[in-house]
Structures are given as C-alpha cells and as structure tokens.
Amino acid sequence: MHFTRAIVRPPARSFAGGLSSALEGPPDINQALVQHAGYVAALRDCGLQVTRLAPDAAYPDGTFVEDTAILTGRGAILTRPGAPSREGEVRSMAECLRNFYADLRGIAAPGTVDGGDICEADGHFLIGVSGRTNEDGAHQLAEHLGRLGYTSSIIDIRANPALLHLKSGIAYLGDGVWVADGGIQNDLRFQGCVNARDLILVPPSEAYAANCVRVNDAILVAAGYPQMSAALEKRGCRVVHLEMSEFRKMDGGLSCLSLRF
Ligand code: GLY
After folding, report:
1. Does the beta carbon of 82 sit less than 6 angstroms from any atom of ligand 1?
2. How far is Cα 63 from Cα 47, in angstroms, rounded to an integer?
3. Most CB contacts within 10 A, which of 201, 208, 216, 226?
4. How far does the centroid of ligand 1 lie from the alpha carbon of residue 23, in Å?
C-alpha cells in the first residue's frame, strides 16, 4: 500500500509512568523526544504528510497511537484498548480521524482491541487475540472489516507471553515477504494464515526488531539489530535504522508510534 499520511503523538512528560514489562529502567523523556523527532523525519523522508497530535500527560502510553485505530483504504475503526489506562486515548484520535474518514466505526464493550494486534497483508487482516485484544473485540473487528470488503483471520497468541501484541512478533513487508520471530513462526496457526513467499526469521537475540514497518520504498527498523538489518538489505530493501531505546523500555515498537494511511 502506498501511504501519503501518518498520525503521531510525541511522548508526554509523564511517559515513564506508562505500562511496561521491560526491565530496562525508566526512559529518558528528552532522549525519547529526540528519537521521536527522528522517527517523524523518517516518515517525512518517505513522502508522508505527518499530523502531530498534542502530547497528553493523562495518557503516558498515548505516544503509541497505532493502538487506537485501524485505518484502511475504505474506512477506519476506532479501537477500545485492552488496558483500562489507555481507553481514553481514543477520544482525541477520533476527533483527528473525522477530518480524514467519513466511515468511522468503533469497538464496543466488552470487546477490546489494540491496533498493535492487527497486521494487514494485501487486504487480509490478521487479528491477534492477546492480553489486550479479546475474542469479542476480535470478532467485532472482523465484522467491521468484512463490511468494508476485507477478509480476516483470528490468531490466538496468548500462549506466547513474550508477545505484547501480534506485531511484536510479525511484520508484513509487502510482495509476499513476512518477518517473524522464531516463537511465532513455529505457530502453525500463523503458518496456516499467511501465504509467505519469503519469510525472514528474526533470531531470538534480535526479537525486538521483528516489529519493523514498510513505508513506501523503505523499511523502518530499530537500530542495533545487525542480523535483521543484513537480512533486509540482502533482499535489496532500503533500510532506515531508527534509535528506539527509550520506546523499547516502555514495550513500544516502531509500528506503535504512528498510524499510516
Ligand atoms: N506501554 C505500551 C503498552 O503497554 O501498551
């Protein structure tokens, strides 16, 4: 898919108060802001017009905007994040998306969906049921997507505690190329759901880099993961390395930092 726009939200001063299972110490907000600015610059270099939402200290995880909506070429679906502390992040995203989408749907209680659990591949959506996205939410989302003319499959990743979200472990790079970390590629449900022409296996020591993003002609990947980077470059990809250390401390990956459409 060719993207022309992205929505981001820089981290708020309260960023360190967000949810995290990483045992890497608190993030440095000033460094996080520098890294976020680098991320935005990379999106702009890929030709995207970037809409920047205001940081909101009431929502320390609010920089991870991807979790608040699913954007498609035919309509958008606002999520209902699975962590109660993140539910309110959707309000400001809804206001923003009304400028771009006439068809704006939503997930209703008791359903929960985090956008990080949704991976689109050429009009087919993989929906991960995780600690954040529940079965009710997954089925609601599948229905919305179906009404928009898309197909979907539901994958239960709850047996894999290393994955916060489905896209913590997989990425679709287009042209039949998938990235998967070892834990999830062995999952037969994943193999049954995707038709991989080429599967890039991420070594366990570089599992964080599985969350990479294709943006037009570039693949954005976290800096500091040489094997992953080499695997992408070997395939002729234009690889853009981005410093992500402060977001990693808060369980956030590259895809989480923007909504692309
Ligand atoms: N800190 C990101 C999340 O837990 O949703």
Report:
1. no
2. 21
3. 208
4. 14
Query: Whole-model pTM?
Result: 0.96
Q: What is the CATH number of the domain that holds 180?
A: 3.75.10.10
Give me the catalytic one of 46, 119, 144, 165. Answer: 165
| Residue 250 beta carbon below 6 angstroms from any ligand 1 atom | yes
Mean pLDDT, rounded, for 206-214: 97
**Residue 144 among the catalytic residues:** no
Beta strands in the chain (DSSP E): 5-8, 49-52, 69-71, 76-78, 104-106, 118-121, 124-129, 151-156, 170-174, 177-181, 198-202, 213-215, 218-222, 238-242, 259-260
- Calculate mean pLDDT across residues 118-126: 95
Q: How many domains does the chain have?
A: 1
Which of 9, 117, 164 should be mutated for ligand 1, with most atoms under 8 A from CB? Answer: 164
Q: Are 61 and 16 in contact (CB under 8 A)?
A: no
